[in-house]
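Re: that chain you flagged

S.,

Sorry for the slow reply, it's been a week of failed gels. I finally had a moment to sit down with the sequence you sent. For the record, here it is as I used it:
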Amino acid sequence: EVRLVESGGGLVQPGGSLRLSCAASGFTFDDHAMSWVRQAPGKGLEWVSAITWNGSITYYADSMKGRFTMSRDNAKNTLYLQMNSLRSEDTAVYFCAKVGGAGSLDYWGQGTQVTVSS
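Prediction finished late last night. Pasting the structure tokens below so you have them in one place:
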């Protein structure tokens, strides 16, 4: 059974930092690209970032470039999202997702809440 479990969310002030983690199990982690997606209150899903199977290449949505850094530790089957210079508009539930065939996101975690507020 594929499982993705996010952690690390919380309340942070504007300009602060958080690091999210996603523990993966039930599949061969280093065979797959992975992604982060978020959903702000009352809004739809927004793609955040993606990383190749070996972590050599990362991709980011424009609004996250320079502030967010995605990484992975294949020895620990864990995905990370380092978020710096956080803004109120970054408030959302953050999901990690496994990239499946044709680039689809075929498995998702339950999400972790990030709230940026003073």
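What I noticed first: The mean pLDDT is 97.

Talk soon,
D.
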